[in-house]
Amino acid sequence: MNTKKIVITGGPGTGKTSVIQALEDHGYYCFHEVSREIIKEAKKKGIDQLFLEDPLLFSELLLEGRIKQHRDAGESTSDLVFLDRGVPDVVAYMNYFGNDYPPVFNRVCREYVYEQVFILPPWKQIYTDDSERYETYEQAVEIHDALARSYTEHGYEPVEVPQGTVAQRTSFILSHLV
């Protein structure tokens, strides 16, 4: 089976998790953000902010997790799978923070391809902090730009999802699938 892999991306606090949950509630197979699990595991080991303490290790773990999700999505029996972020997100964050990374990061962006990418823009009214989010709203705007650049540089044309209720955003995504 040729499963269509669709990425939902965007900066922190843009509503990705809510949209993914709504898609899941509609019966679609979804993969959730892997970074929260990596952050929680690091905190259990006494590392408060793994990304800040060892950005390369954190990003390597993210890359592994996102590659695994891509492979698992490809083995799915579903025609369509949604993923909360994709491989190019890792490069976007490394570029945003000015961190060096090995060439393999860009290579895997070309190897693990998605059929479509939707990007949720910054939205100040819904932005909130939580225990795994350390970016300010202003940083979230800059990260959005880095994400858009990363996906474009890796050959995608991200579709921007307009602001609206979770139902409206979900409906937009479903009606704009190619």
UniProtKB/TrEMBL annotation:
<dbReference type="InterPro" id="IPR038727">
    <property type="entry name" value="NadR/Ttd14_AAA_dom"/>
</dbReference>
<dbReference type="Pfam" id="PF13521">
    <property type="entry name" value="AAA_28"/>
</dbReference>
<feature type="domain" description="NadR/Ttd14 AAA">
    <location>
        <begin position="5"/>
        <end position="169"/>
    </location>
</feature>
<dbReference type="InterPro" id="IPR027417">
    <property type="entry name" value="P-loop_NTPase"/>
</dbReference>
<protein>
    <submittedName>
        <fullName>Predicted ATPase</fullName>
    </submittedName>
</protein>
